[in-house]
């Protein structure tokens, strides 16, 4: 068969069209490579791919049927999530949050999916997961296989953050601003502020890295809440918790941090890179709300005497002067201020337009509350709250906290609550033989903390307790901080801001009250979702203790079996007047096949 001879013009046109297509394809591949490797879109797409399976089983009708079967005791088991979900945090989901505004870091804050869009499944541990290294050895090393994320070790190892050695991650105790170790850095701060002696007890470490500062402050009996967002370092809070150091995931963005006013004796920032003077000093105002009168603010790193940041450093000093902070020292790239103990000179004329909040403003409201553009009056707090006036640690633990009055008959209620928890904890240890006080328990959560009575009753144990005060209940968290304990506000109809496998021991008294509307028997959410979330944040072989009415405990044990817990029901302790039973459960150590 003969060949067809096309005119030269047509041959050249076809060749050029083919070259155009090939060139466009190559350019497109190069552009896509650039997006995936050098921009946030790559992280977003990767996260989306990792969570496709996780989200695919979130059929609202199917999940509701499962919930009904579980609550009815129909031997319906909750299935395991896919392997890629080992570190899933529902409210800090990169796939969802990357689509949000970056203004004031809004996209890094909590953004929870609706309950019916959340898959009803159990988060599995990593393939090579081991029971964590016990405290205090865990401060210095953890199992690499429990969180095999090498990004921080690769990027920050030269600064003493962490490094891999054999099957462990090793933590030398350093940080970007203290590469020679947190111990020396804390000793330097001790030249200017009363680190020793119990004057300082509660501290906040912002942008904490792997929380070496907070870990080594424990030796001084200073309890530090460390926080950082889920960011490009991926797992810094996860490392902190695995080390046995108090920490949770948070971002100082558009909303108040979930703490009451005047909670912390010390606020610390070591290269946290928070723009304190931006947005008319909004972030400095939030720090001021959280800092106890007479407390200390320490900022190390930019912009303090930092190259090419003269304007930012000058502005930072101006804001501090406007709020009447006393400059204690500037030592290299570290500045230390002391907050006044009373409203001594504010408001001053200032370029930032800082003004006082109205008398109707409640500085303790902090659950999904927008950041203030005004300064909270310290006169809203009693003078006995200030550092140097409030009793020293450990005396302040047993004293009636100044803000116990937030509850009706607060003095009497506090004293009765303290006696009740001493009796209950004794029963837990002697009769129920719980692991409290043993090396198996380090990270503890009380999901319904009230005055912190449970935490106070285990003060001699080698533990720290995250006291959670439900956002729809009386605001007793301020009293918890006045006692020298720590905690956060939270609504248990949403997931908690922490990684899976964070806690060794979870305690809750009155679990049904966490899902009901106040003063009602109507559900805001359901117990199945709540207990699946408890399972997410509990470590394998961890312990759960739940106290409630007998009929509630019967519902709870049905759910416990569906989520693979081994559970038993016990009578209450002698002397208790409450109509309640106690469920003690252990999370089984299972793995995906």
Could you give a short description of this structure?
30% of the residues lie in helices and 17% in strands.
Q: What does this protein look like?
A:
The strands form three sheets. The chain has a seven-stranded mixed sheet. α1 crosses α2. It is 30% helix and 17% strand. The longest helix is centred in the first third of the chain and has 31 residues, at 8-38. Mean pLDDT is 89; it is low at 1-16 and 29-56. The chain has 593 residues and is α/β, with parallel strands linked by helices. It is globular and about 65 Å long. This is Methyltransferase. Keywords: Glycoprotein, Membrane, Methyltransferase, Signal-anchor, Transferase, Transmembrane, Transmembrane helix. Its EC number is 2.1.1.-. It comes from Cucurbita maxima.
Tags for this entry?
593 residues, alpha/beta, Rossmann fold, 2 domains, 7-stranded mixed β-sheet, 17 strands, globular, disordered N terminus, S-adenosylmethionine-dependent methyltransferase activity, membrane, signal-anchor, methyltransferase
User: Could you give me the name of the CATH homologous superfamily of the largest domain?
Assistant: Vaccinia Virus protein VP39
CATH class identity of the largest domain? Alpha Beta
Spatial strand sequence of the major β-sheet: 6-5-4-7-8-10-9
CA-CA gap between termini: 62 Å
Largest sheet: 7 strands, mixed
CATH architecture of the largest domain: 3-Layer(aba) Sandwich
Please tell me the total number of domains.
2
- Helix count equals 17
- The helicity comes to 25-40%
Assembly context of the chains: single chain
Helix- and strand-based class?
alpha/beta
């Amino acid at each position: 068969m003969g060949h067809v001879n096309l005119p030269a013009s047509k041959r050249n046109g076809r060749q050029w069209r083919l070259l155009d297509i090939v060139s466009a394809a190559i350019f497109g591949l190069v552009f896509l490579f650039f997006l995936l490797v050098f921009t946030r879109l790559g992280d977003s797409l990767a996260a989306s791919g990792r969570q496709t399976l996780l989200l695919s089983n979130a059929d609202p009708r199917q999940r509701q049927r499962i919930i009904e079967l579980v609550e009815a005791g129909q031997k319906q088991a909750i299935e395991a999530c896919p392997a890629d979900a080992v570190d899933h945090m529902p409210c800090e989901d990169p796939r969802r949050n990357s689509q949000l505004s970056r203004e004031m870091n809004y996209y890094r804050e909590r953004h929870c999916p609706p309950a019916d869009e959340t898959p009803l499944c159990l988060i599995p541990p990593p393939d090579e997961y081991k029971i964590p290294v016990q405290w205090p050895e865990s401060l210095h090393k953890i199992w690499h296989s429990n969180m095999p994320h090498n990004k921080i070790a690769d990027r920050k190892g030269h600064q003493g953050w962490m490094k891999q050695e054999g099957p462990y991650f090793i933590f030398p105790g350093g940080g970007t601003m203290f590469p020679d170790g947190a111990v020396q850095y804390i000793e330097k701060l001790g030249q200017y502020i009363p680190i020793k002696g119990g004057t300082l007890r509660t501290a906040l470490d912002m942008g904490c890295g792997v929380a070496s500062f907070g870990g080594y402050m424990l030796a001084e009996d200073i309890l530090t809440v460390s926080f950082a967002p889920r960011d490009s370092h991926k797992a810094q809070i996860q490392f902190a918790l695995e080390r046995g150091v108090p920490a949770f995931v948070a971002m100082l963005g558009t909303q108040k941090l979930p703490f009451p006013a005047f909670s912390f004796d010390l606020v610390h920032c070591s290269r946290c890179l928070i723009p304190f003077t931006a947005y008319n000093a909004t972030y400095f105002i939030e720090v001021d709300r959280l800092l106890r009168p007479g407390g200390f603010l320490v900022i190390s790193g930019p912009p303090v005497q930092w190259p090419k940041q003269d304007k930012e450093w000058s502005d930072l000093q101006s804001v501090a002067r406007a709020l009447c902070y006393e400059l204690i020292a500037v030592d290299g790239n570290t500045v230390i201020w002391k907050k006044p103990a009373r409203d001594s000179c504010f408001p001053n004329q200032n370029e930032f337009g800082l003004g006082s909040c109205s008398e109707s403003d409640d500085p303790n409201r902090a659950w999904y509350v927008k950041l203030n553009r005004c300064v909270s009056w310290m006169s809203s707090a009693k003078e006995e709250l200030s550092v140097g006036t409030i009793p020293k640690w450990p005396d302040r633990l047993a004293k009636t906290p100044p803000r116990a009055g937030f509850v009706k008959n607060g003095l009497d209620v506090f004293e009765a609550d303290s006696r009740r928890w001493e009796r209950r904890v004794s029963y837990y240890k002697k009769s129920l033989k719980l692991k409290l006080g043993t090396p198996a328990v380090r990270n503890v959560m009380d999901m319904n903390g009230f005055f912190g009575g449970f935490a106070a009753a285990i003060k001699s144990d080698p533990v720290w307790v995250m006291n959670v005060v439900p956002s729809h209940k009386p605001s007793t968290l301020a009293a918890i901080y006045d006692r020298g304990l720590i905690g956060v506000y939270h609504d248990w109809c949403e997931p908690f801001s922490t990684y899976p496998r964070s806690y060794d021991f979870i305690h809750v008294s009155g679990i049904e009250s966490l899902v009901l509307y106040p003063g009602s028997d109507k559900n805001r959410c359901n117990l199945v979702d709540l207990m699946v979330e408890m399972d997410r944040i509990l470590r394998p072989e961890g312990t759960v203790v739940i106290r409630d009415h007998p009929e509630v405990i019967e519902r709870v044990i049905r759910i416990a079996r569906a989520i693979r817990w081994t559970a038993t029901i016990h009578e209450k302790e002698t002397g208790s007047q409450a109509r309640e039973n106690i469920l003690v459960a252990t999370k089984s150590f299972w793995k995906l096949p």
